[in-house]
Each structure stands twice: as structure tokens, then as C-alpha cells.
Amino acid sequence: MSALLVIMAAAFGAASAAFLPRLAHRLAVGFAEPARPGCADCARPFPEGFAGWVRAGAACSCSGGYAVPVLGGAAVATILTTTVGASPELPGYLLAAVPGLLLAMIDRRCLRLPDPLVGALAVLATVPLAILRPERIGVAVVAAVAVLTTYTILAFLGGLGLGDVKLAAVLALILGFAGWPAVVVGVLAPHLINGPIAVFLLISGRRRPIAFGPALLAGALAGLALQQP
Predict the structure, then answer these.
(1) How confident is the model at residue 1 (pLDDT cuts 50, 70, 90)?
(2) Which distant-in-sequence residues (6+ apart) come within 8 Å of 52 by Cβ?
(3) Crossing angle between the packed helical segments 162-176 and 90-110, to the nearest 10 degrees
(4) R_g over Cα of the chain
């Protein structure tokens, strides 16, 4: 594994994540609500057009909190690079990690996973994988259908939101190209991540909804970590 490749990937992850706080701030709204026109903290309106969406650093000059996304982007890119290695699949994974991080940030804020971002994640990851590994399309589709069916049942039972169902199916589709062990880890890990949190909240009497999207994405990353360079 080239140290230069890891450094370049980490730099890409950090740089791309630096532009996510404002996007997450504007898109973290309720279902069918328009994007937030201004800062939720100081009520300062965002500029019109491109400048109102693209900003490196904090969502607004009145706030901070952009170091965590930057470090998270670098960490995700590093894990993907050391796992996948210098393969043709790596650029697709790195690009797909950007909407993945944005989805996690939005879900933590408002418990919502916007469909366009889930679709972007699916396209950026699965299209290159389908071209590079056409022999695994069948496994990927079966994994996605199985997870979609299972999570749909859980959603009707009241355990998940439909956004979680869609994201889980997309991640299963992506993991299917890595093989069944990756799918199994990707399905089980999110529950192991959120389970202790739910138990703690229950014991402490702090009953509140828990964002499941970040756990789904972390589980998928763990599943991909089973790959060998």
C-alpha cells in the first residue's frame, strides 16, 4: 500500500467534508420543507445562488463545529484506501463517501435521509462497481432485495423509517459486490452500534428517537473493511 495514495485519499476526504457543514445545515429540515434559507442560530440569511450553498468550514460565521466532519472525511477515506487498495474501484468508493457523510450529518440533525442524496450514493458507488465487477451484479441485487424486504417489514412494525429502509437497501447493493460476508457485517453492525445507545437511553429514562442512518453507513464501512487489497 502506497503511503502517498493514503495521504492523497485522506486529503480528498478532508477537503470534500469541509464543504458539508453548510449543506447539512440547509438540508436538515422536515419532510417536504424547503431548504433552510438562513442560519438557524443567528438568523442571518445565506447568500443567493451558488455562494449560499458552497462554503468551506462552518455552516455560518457565527458557528464552529466543522473539525469533526473534516476528520471524519479523512478517516473514512483512509479506511477505504487501506481496505480497497490501489484498485479501479477506489475512486467510486471515495466519491460515494461524500454523500454518505452528508446523509449521516443530516440524519443526526433531523432524523431524515433525503432521497436525492441516497440516490446519489447509489449511483456513485454501484455504477462503477457494476462496470468493473459485472459477475457480482446478481449477488448485489439479491442482497439489496433481501435487505429491502426485511427492513420494510421492520418499518411497518414501527422500528424504522422509510429513509432507513431505502438507505439499507442501497448499502446492501453496494456491499453485495464485495461478497456475502460484507453484507452480513453491514446488516448486523448497525444494530450492534445503536443497540447499546438505545439501552442506555431506556435505562436513563431519556426516551428519544435515534438516528439510524449513521449506524447504517458505519456498518457498511465495516463490511467493506473485510475486503483485501
Answers:
(1) low
(2) 26, 46
(3) 160
(4) 18
